[in-house]
Amino acid sequence: MKSLESTIKKIEDLLIEKSILVDAIKRQSQLVVKQSAEVIQSIHRNIKPDIQALKKNYNQLLDVIGPNKEMLYLPNVELGMQEFTEAMLFFNYVYGDESLTPENLRVEEVPFILGIMDFTGELKRLAVNSIRNNDLDKAMEILDEMNSLYDLTMNFSHYIVSPDFKRKQDVLRNMLERLSGDISLITIEKKLIDSIESKYGKKSV
Fold first, then answer.
1. Which of 42, 61, 147, 184 satisfies CB 3.0 to 4.6 Å to 47 for a cystine?
2. What's CA 68's distance to the chain center, in Å?
């Protein structure tokens, strides 16, 4: 009986240690998610963010996890990896020209793929802003990038990647259809206006 009591006490101590570790990982993951969102918002406001601060906090998350590799698959950690990937891809698209992979970002494969899908949402916002600024060439360039990413991810089965993957694919497809329609409509309108102005002259205000 004494040996059983000793074993139970050891298990209790291990579970307490694990609980403390999980709490620390959760806090650090939440910080990464929050900072990733701030990076994305800064980019949309045309303010270059401090990407090194995000990298530092993400690496600290991995340091907290340490050798406890099973912790990499906690929902909070996977979300942190996904949001970190999205922010890094978006930053790289606007300011950099690196080849980003799960290996050099130090993220797991599934959060990396889901991060790519979320990244397309930020591209859509860029395209919409380009349309508002009458920069249709830029909008078309972004649309082409989104189409390429959609084609590349079509090879993945959502059963293999994540239950949420199919929904993200559907969202991306709908974004592409709407964005393509908007660009086509505005292009036609612009050509019509140019034709009228060429024939009758530009209307004075």
1. 42
2. 25
Contacting residues for 125 by C-beta, under 8 A, at least 6 apart: 44
CA gap 49, 19 in Å, rounded? 34
Rounded to whole angstroms, the Cα distance separating 13 from 67 reads 19
CB atoms within 10 A of CB 81: 29
pTM score = 0.86
Class of residue 11 by CB neighbours under 10 A (exposed 0-12, middle 13-18, buried 19+): exposed
Cα distance between residue 33 and residue 14, in whole Å:
28
Q: What is the pLDDT of residues 37-77, one digit of tens each?
A: 999 999 999 999 999 999 999 999 999 999 999 999 999 99
**For the packed helices 51-65 and 75-95, what is the interaxial angle rounded to 10 degrees?**
150
Assigned token pair, 190: 């612009």
